[in-house]
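dumping this here before i forget
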Amino acid sequence: DYLRHNLSKPHTIEELAVYTNMTRRTLTRHFKHATGLPIVTWLNNERLRYAAELLEVTDYSIDKIAESAGFNTAVLFRKLFKNKYGTNPNHWRKNFNQQLSSSDEYS
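structure:
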């Protein structure tokens, strides 16, 4: 929950280990056992999920979304987003809005 509520903040394994009162090794082992993913991968996935949600429900700029989701740069955000979802953030937003418009026509 701590990480999900603090996606926009930078995190290090060392800081999280101190926060959880574990050694770095113990934290990474327990985290991977609990989630099936390394911490950095899980954190990036959660940030991308949150960013996708922001694309769908806000008109924030890509830079603002990248910042809000905790990415250091919009360039990194765009690259990771495309790798995960197969499209860039602008197309994601456009397609979501088109689907929303289409579903409104049938309501």
